Amino acid sequence: MAVTTGYTSLLANVADWLSRGDLTSQIPVFVQNWEERFFRDPKNWGPWLETSYSTAMSAGVSAVPSGFLAWKNVYISMTPTRRLSPVGLSQLYDDYPRSGSSGIPNLIARNGANFEYGPYPSSNFTVGGTYYAKPTALRSYSTGGADAVAHYLILNAPDLLLYGALLEAAPLIKDSEQIGTWQGFYGAALDAYQKLQKATNISGGPMQVRVG
After folding, report:
1. Cα 151–195–84 angle (5° rounding)?
2. Residue of 131, 139, 133 lying closest to 165 (CA atoms)
3. Cβ count within 10 A of residue 197
4. How many other C-beta atoms lie within 10 A of the C-beta of residue 92?
5. Which residues pair with 109 in a beta bridge?
6. 3-class DSSP assignment, residue 77
7. Are 84 and 76 in contact (CB under 8 A)?
8. Alpha-carbon torsion 6, 2, 194, 190, what sign?
9. SS3 for 56?
10. Maximal CA-CA distance, the chain
11. Is the backbone of residue 112 left (phi > 0), alpha (psi -120 to 50) or beta?
12. What is the pLDDT of residue 196?
């Protein structure tokens, strides 16, 4: 069994576990399907997916960055900072019609490739914050030196990758006992991963209840 040090090693490991030559060509698809499914669930977003955002508005909007999933926090850079509340576009338009008055925004909504603000900005303010971004796809590390790039999941959750990819092959496999074993290992790996992200997100500190 190969040690998972990169994408190609992951594919080799999945092939070893499957022991199905007729499915070898489909293994990259299994990995890709699992990866896309994994990042669709907000419970799987952690600090390693956080990216800083700082940009000045142009004509009252700012661009949605590549790989954007959701905001962790977002604000207008001013003194004091003005926190922005993410809302749906229809709510933003209902609360602040585009033909209405302008001011310092307190709402932000996505509209295609841009973020819009409410009320309509009275100036091209600078927007700052942190957002969750989809990482570089594992399949991008499949050739040459790029395969040596250390992907967070390969370093920190190789079991999650392995069993996740194996379960994507489940519809093509008749051995229900084997699938059940993979499901058990995958559930344990996913639980450990999510607990690690939660702990890292609060820097290891205990949760505190605020009174008043």
Report:
1. 80
2. 139
3. 18
4. 25
5. 116
6. coil
7. yes
8. positive
9. strand
10. 66
11. left
12. 94
Helices (H) and strands (E) in the chain, counts: 6, 10
- Do 56 and 77 touch, CB atoms closer than 8 A? no
Nearest to 67 by CA among 132, 152, 159: 132
Which of 6-20, 84-98, 120-134, 156-170 is the least confident region? 6-20
- Which of 27-31, 175-179, 200-204 is the least confident region? 200-204
**Per-residue confidence (pLDDT) for residue 98, from 0 to 100:** 87
**Closest Cα to residue 82, out of 117, 113, 49, 112?**
117
Amino acid at 48: W
Residue 89 makes CB contacts below 8 A (sequence gap 6+) with 109, 110, 111, 116
Domain boundaries, the chain: 47-133
- pLDDT for 210: 44
Rounded CA separation 59/40 (Å): 32
Which ranges of the chain does DSSP label H, i.e. alpha helix?
Answer: 7-18, 27-39, 89-95, 152-156, 158-168, 176-201
